[in-house]
Amino acid sequence: MAYSIAKSLFKNSALMMMAQAATWVSGLVLLMVVARYLGSADYGYLYLALSIQTICQWVIDYGGQNYIPKEVSRKKTDSSDLMTQSMLLRMGLWVLSMIVTFALCLVANYSTRVIILIMVLVFSNLWVNLTLLLRSGYQGFEDMKYPSLATVVDRGLLTITVVPALLLGLRVTSVAILMALTPFVNFLICLRFSKKMFRLNISLQMDKFKLLLKEGFPYFLWSLFGVVYYRINAIMLSLMTPASVVGWYGAAFRFFGILMFLPAIYSAALYPILTRLSRSEAPSMISTSQKSISFLLLAGIPIAVGLIFFSRFIVQLLFGLKEFGPSAVIIQLFSAGMLLTYVDFVFGGIVLAIDKQKQWAMIAFGAMVVNIGMNYLLIPYFQTLSGNGGMGAAIATDLTELFVMISALFLMPSKLFSRKLLATCGKGVAAGVVMALSIAGAESIGFPYLTLPVIGLVAYVIALLATATFNVSQLRHLLAEISIPGFLKTFSEKRRASA
């Protein structure tokens, strides 16, 4: 990986790491407080509303989180027109999503209370999606300073309003309203500084609007199918199981989503770089992709092993076993899917960077079909077998991720899977086995429970070092870049550059 590429990648990763740290802390706090104070049933209603909001959000985005950064990174001088037409498109799709969502809520025969929750959150997609548009533009310019700052403010504001509201006795509807209002601050901050890169105006240019519809359509299909196969579980659970089961699954899935912070940050910084390299520097793109796969896989393996061994402790700490005990087995089932998802993040970036978005959309459609089919079979089966249909939904998610990974392999560049990469993956898996055996052995001997994660992690690192899986100097460089001093240095450099 060339130094200039690594510098851009790690600097933007460091900036987004700051924002994600705020999101991670906020997400954990909210997960603990909201789930505990609402209980499994009300939390199930809230999770259902959030899932429907997310599906609508990705419909309104029209694939922009992949298409916009790609086009801006290649054609920075034309970014203002692209952003303007994208803004107009999102406004139109937002109105359509409000109408369709309300109609589907009536068809599903949801209660008035649940419909209010859903419509409040879907309404907020107006400014949520405009914020996502602005973030995509910033990403294309490889400058994530202001979106990161906006995220920190947004998440902090959400936490300091929702937690006191619950402590004062306000219930699920109040939580939904606060969740809908606080992202508006994020939008204002992103909009305030966007003029440095592009200017927005309310002016429909029909030729460019049609071009946006045409070129963005494959990305739209991928994002739509992708979010459906991730979020349809909640809707199907709501129609097949009690609200408490939706709550168990929702708590586990929200925690699963928090663990996606690392690949989400890394892939967001990686994507515009891969897009740029795909045009003229194919060897550099292959090298960058290989190192990215290795990094995320090696980072994901110990997390997956930890989920298997410590899921009950996690549930007890975050939600309480009394209301959310069945979430523990769902978290364990998610561990395999989490590892697949880490790698799929990089695969997705590679596929889109080499302009195979149409094939990627077809894979997403297949994944959606697989997911819905598996949910249809597995949710009622596990609901009857154990009273926890969320187990079936979790297995359906894992199988869907496996389908995506296998399908993506056929779209990867032929030189991507070198012997060195395959050897690194094999060594990582072997180190994960060593970690699991170390934890199991230490537990059987009687080591204190809280020492088990440390023992497992030490065993994992020793196994990686013993097999020469990674270069120690590269690891030191990465840690220096993503540390607090490294972030402060990055922030000051960017501020001087823009002065």
Structural category is mainly alpha
Sheet of most strands: none
String of helices and strands: HHHHHHHHHHHHHHHHHHHH
Spans where pLDDT lies below 50 across 5 or more residues: 1-7, 478-499
As a percent range, the share of helical residues equals: over 70%
What percent of residues are in strands?
A: under 5%
The total strand number stands at 0
What's the end-to-end separation, in Å?
Answer: 30 Å
Global outline = globular
The residue-averaged pLDDT reads 82
Number of helical runs? 20
Number of domains: 1
Over all CA atoms, what is the radius of gyration? 22 Å
What's a concise summary of this model?
The protein is mainly α. It has helices at residues 3-61, 64-74, 79-107, 112-123, 125-140, 145-167, 172-181, 183-193, 206-240, 243-258, 261-280, 282-318, 321-324, 327-353, 357-386, 390-409, 419-445, 452-466, 472-482, 484-498.
Overview of the structural elements:
The chain has 499 residues and is mainly α. It has one domain. 86% of the residues lie in helices and 0% in strands. The protein has 20 helices and no strands. Helix 11 runs parallel beside helix 14. The longest helix has 59 residues, at 3-61. The two termini are 30 Å apart. The model is unreliable at 1-7 and 478-499 (pLDDT under 50).
